[in-house]
Write the structure tokens for this entry.
Amino acid sequence: MGIINSLGFILNHPLNKTKRLDAIYRYLKWQIGSRLASGSIVFEWVNGTRFLVKPGDTGLTGNIYTGLHEFPDMSLLLDFLREEDLFIDIGSNVGSYTILACGAKKARGFAFEPIPDTYEKLKENIRLNHIENIVQAFNIGLGSAVGELSFTSSMDCMNHALSDGEIHSGAIIVKVSTLDLILKDESPTLIKIDVEGFETPVLQGAEHSLSNPSLKVVIMELNGSGSRYKYDENNILKLMKSKGFDTYSYDPFARLLCYLNGKNSESGNTIFIRDLEFVENRVKSSGLKTINGKRY
């Protein structure tokens, strides 16, 4: 993302629209300060959580500029989850969602990150937030069966399983399992899936987990990337519908869920909800969260 596009995103972010000068100050402070620092910087985040970040960590720097990079989805997670819940982070990268779910909300977590270097950063952020006792981190990929897959390794949060015929100079071999085999008898409450188009095999390996009535919310990236594997996102929508999930957008300021007929065309992520009344009651009764020094 170029400077102009970055500034446009930052200035038009919902948490920055009424305080754009503050947003520009945070952007400049990071751009200058991060270049003067040696190594990673500890950033104080939501509700006392923290993360380690350095220039180029695109999965984290957006949170510095805006407070919550993926505002509706991250807000729903914060408003919905409770301490007794189990959060599943598939494609966790360096752990933004895991930090929020398990650090800010104290839910238990399973985090899956296939790229070894990124997995080590995930582990560092888990240790930084002292949540090792409630988070299990796995350096594997997830799919429809146990085996191995080739992954890119130098594309930061855009790393992905290679499609047939795709060649990448930094390709690595990664062990793959299924979500159902890992979870066994565990009962997830919220699953986040960000696997750069590989959603279909992940869901095929999560049949039992998707059918578990404990699962109320799935936040899934659906941005057309599945076409690299010749997967049709309409089939994902049909699968989720067959499991009782409908699609929604979320207004964090009003704590309002709005029904969608299909995927969210205004965001890379789509929110799937089963048992709407339960989820609505949760988000409306949730406590306040502190973002950029302000309570919401």
Summary: The chain is about 35% helix and 20% strand. The radius of gyration is 18 Å. The chain has two domains: 1-68, 70-287.
